[in-house]
Amino acid sequence: MKVEITVNGEPTTADVEPRLLLAHYLRENVGLKATNIGCDTTSCGACTVLVDGESVKSCTVLAVQTDQRSVTTLEGLSPEGGELHPMAKAFRSEHGLQCGFCTPGMVMAAVSLVEQNPNPTERDVREGLEGNLCRCTGYHNIVRAVLVAAGQDPDAEQRREAESDAVRTAPGFSTGEAGA
Fold first, then answer.
1. CB 112 within 8 A of CB 54
2. Residue 175 has pLDDT above 70, yes or no
3. 32-44: pLDDT as tens digits
4. What is the rounded distance in angstroms from the CA atom of residue 163 to the CA atom of residue 33?
5. CA distance 80 to 150
6. Which of 2, 31, 97, 158 has a CA 20 to 30 Å removed from the CA of 175?
7. pLDDT tens column, 47-70
8. Strand ranges of the sheet holding 10-15, from the earlier edge strand across to the other edge
């Protein structure tokens, strides 16, 4: 079957088997290697790309399903030799990666998340990325990176909680409860 897919702003055309997965199309037909294949079951998110701006797991999308559509991979976020995308910069500055296998999919999911919710809370980020697994980082720095890329202060919630705790434990503070 012939498909015409715009990948990272460039038109691509190929004759493909109807069962060819988008992840394989991107890696084998287009030669883009950032889209990793980790599970083939949508469990890990390493293959996440944007299709018409929406994050999808390309290991369960057929290439023919993206015919006449636009696909963006990690390589498409930053032009070759150009400046890194703000999300990729934040992942680097906040140490949101270790081995790097999940990073392309995590960055793509985070870009989509911030597009949909430009002012996410820590909870929004954690919930928004729960379909993307990382076995190395423990997510703390990934969440920080997404908040930084969204222009948020990743430490603001902790400071508010600490200030609130300090007020509650201050001498003379009353909760208004009987016996307090």
1. yes
2. no
3. 999 999 988 889 9
4. 46
5. 23
6. 158
7. 999 999 999 999 999 999 999 999
8. 10-15, 2-7, 70-72, 48-51, 54-57
Q: So what's the pLDDT on residue 63? A: 98
Tokens (6 digits) for 136: 């190395």
Place of tokens 């909870």: 123
Closest CA to 108 of 135, 71, 62: 71
- Distance between the two ends of the chain, CA-based, in angstroms? 75
pLDDT score, position 159: 76
SS (H, E, C) the chain: CEEEEEECCEEEEEECCCCCEHHHHHHHHCCCCCCCCCCCCCCCCCCEEEECCEEEECCCCEHHHHCCCEEECHHHHCCCCCCCCHHHHHHHHCCCCCCCCCHHHHHHHHHHHHHHCCCCCHHHHHHHCCCCCCCCCCCHHHHHHHHHHCCCCCCHHHHHHHHHHHHHHCCCCCCCCCCC
Which pTM was predicted? 0.85
Asked whether the CA dihedral 94, 99, 100, 102 is positive or negative, the reply is negative
